[in-house]
Amino acid sequence: MSDSTVSKLDQSKLDSLPVGTVRRLNRLADTLGRFSMLAIDQRGSLRRMLARQTNQTPETVAPQSLQQVKRIVSETVAPLATGILTDPTYGYPFSADVIPARVGVLLAAEVSGYVSPAAREEERLSQLIEGWSAGQTLEAGADAVKLLIYHHPKASADTLAHQRKIVETVGQACKSCGMPFILEAVTYPLNGMDKRSADFARMQPELIVQTARTYSDPCFNVHLLKLEFPGSLKYTQEYQEAGFGNGEVICDRSEVEEACRRLDQAAQVPWVILSAGVTINEFAENLRLATRAGASGFLCGRAVWKHVVDYFPDKQAMHQHMSTTGRANFQKLLSINKQARPWHEHPSFSGSDGSVDC
Amino acid sequence: MSDSTVSKLDQSKLDSLPVGTVRRLNRLADTLGRFSMLAIDQRGSLRRMLARQTNQTPETVAPQSLQQVKRIVSETVAPLATGILTDPTYGYPFSADVIPARVGVLLAAEVSGYVSPAAREEERLSQLIEGWSAGQTLEAGADAVKLLIYHHPKASADTLAHQRKIVETVGQACKSCGMPFILEAVTYPLNGMDKRSADFARMQPELIVQTARTYSDPCFNVHLLKLEFPGSLKYTQEYQEAGFGNGEVICDRSEVEEACRRLDQAAQVPWVILSAGVTINEFAENLRLATRAGASGFLCGRAVWKHVVDYFPDKQAMHQHMSTTGRANFQKLLSINKQARPWHEHPSFSGSDGSVDC
Lengths: 358, 358
Fold this sequence. Notes:
Chain A is α/β, with parallel strands linked by helices and 358 residues long.
């Protein structure tokens, strides 16, 4: 080897993952490889929360309001986190200077929300932010691309193909520039079922497990799955008295624990859980159960910061709330997350590289 | 602004520097913005050191020997540093897994050493590593590009144009992908003068000052200058008895301090000093004087680790030396570096953005 040639970096000891990808994944984690991440990339849901608080319609909420809330949440909680997920529209450009350099940054790749095909109004199609790419995410100083995709295994072939295509596109774009690809796969009901109903709660754990299995396929190039918790403590026997319960019981804790184990087996890449707007106490219990089963941590949004909106537009009061309650919420999760599995200890890294033709 | 459009990130509050560049510069520094960086990108000089130690010619030193020494130095000292400069040939691919994710990485862009034009054998032309780019450096998970350039203001117009062209090329490549550009500008003697002579020592401070001024021009897009110390304590009155002196005196300390001040005025971007193979004690004093004058820290190589080669090829002894003496050397510098100027407090950031046509 002469001084003027360069070794192939992706043939280093780091095995099947390119060195840049490994380095960036490590930047999102603590020194042991556990993810304690804050999500403040909400756009549609934050807009709706602000609209309710200010008696407006979501469309009339000013961009500056979203920017301001995101900045306050980032400034107060990011210093506690190993990584922060924000968005390139209202978040990062207005918060980058308050995110410590040692905290990893993930940027959302999708347009908030979804559209539905004309003939199938329950189905959900994701869209990518126009004019934004994995390469730009990298250049902007972020460490990973996050894509939210809605998934129902029984959606029409067209919808499934559309979603699959988007995941493949982002996966390839990430691969071509060494960016970690974090896929947030979210399930939804069909056939007129209410997302919050007991009927959906009965079937959702299996949907989540199937979704994790589907998008673990190496052809999608996903490095980390961001998943829903495979169970609802609201409907679980042992939590009825913990304040999460709503009176109706459909399962007991052992069934939830079993769903967590099945999810861990289905996920062929490291995974973290999301909070989906549950309370901080319910999410803390979700995290306890998920990390016992093999989750590598959390990427938690509203459970940590949702009450900041109650203080909008009082900037000082929002800051005060996040500096106290918001930080305490996150610290509660940090404490539980000590038992999370370091991402590089995921079983998928102990065998061969598992690459197959897609 | 709709959810599907992306703000121009380089129009954020971070002013004239793109947000990705700022984030990466901060990754190379401590939380206050001071650089405490280790250089282990030596190729030619390390090869010569290993050749002397093993009674070989430099050409016959095995690549594995360079890789091994670089890995041991990286593993033992990088955890103390805010950043590590290594190379993409023998260094990074074989050391990346021992560099903590929170430590910034700089990769060398140039071929080690120089070539001389046929008719002017004293002049020095730099060359870029073939098949390697700022974009690849970014993708590989590094945070900055470092280019070493030799400079003498009285070199021929052809040589000056060649060097200038290379700096411009790398500067543009860095700019196009948001990478910080660290330029190491090193002076050298002409007219048969010995680099270690008193004659050259008399003129070198002014050469270093001129070099800093030349490459501070915004058209080169340099974010940080890595500079020689503008004086030699070996020839300085007050240091004759400190063990650095060689008996001949050409100046006193106040003149060295004055040269440091002139250098700080000439450098229109933040700057750090390099160690050029002096002893750790001499470099510690260099750092004390430079940081008093406005340097933002150091990027130090051989002064920290050169004696590791004395233990080659005993891997355990090399490790032991670096874990004790090597780390203690670096810690000595960390202590002095507390007085360094945070890079973002450089006077150039307090005025307008200073961009001009090149």
